[in-house]
Amino acid sequence: MCPTLVGMTKFSLLTAAAIGLFLAGCSSKPTAPAPPTEPPKAATEARPEPTHAIAGEVQEADPQGGSITVRTAQGEVHRVEVAPHTEVKGLKEGTSEVGKGAAGMAKAVGTDVKRGTMVVVKYTEREGTLVAHEVKHASKDVVKESEVVIHKVEDGGKRVIVKTSNGAKQVYEVSKDATVTTGKEIASAGSATGAKISEGAKATIHFTEDAGNKVVHFVSH
Known about the structure:
The protein has helices spanning 3-27, 101-109; strands at 52-61, 67-72, 77-90, 97-100, 118-126, 129-138, 144-154, 159-163, 169-181, 186-188, 202-210, 213-220. It is an alpha+beta fold. The radius of gyration is 35 Å and the shape is globular.
């Protein structure tokens, strides 16, 4: 075979191969672009539930709302930090919330929370620091305290009959959002958690008197 014919044959074969590849590429379906990937959402840190509660007199209140110092009836003094999620409100049911965090506490300090104010504080302890979840406050002359023995729990925890130190029996209504603490755990009292108030237990109760009714806001036993 002459050189010219050989060259033409090679050229023809290469051209045919190129055309075949081109046609194969045209017949195949285009590859769909990959969907855009969304940036990972930042993980939201779950707020821990409060695990302790105290009731007592305010000894010191930071004007900026960053903390309060509380003295309990047993003489214990606790400094409690105010976090952004801390709820600040009045003790009496129906009282609107003052606010949240340091701003809410600063507002309360400017109006109601003074030295001697009675408060109920729900908090969590983190590495020796007490962090408040809720601060309920009322003037000192409104909140009263009594050492009692729980005699009977009625109406699903909405009412308790107690014996005082002189043996007299008294009836107390229980606020629907009253706090009950055993030293190991806390709970909200009321119809759903009346069992948390144990019959026969010695307890310290903080209560208010409204239209002749004694209303319990804090039970410690």
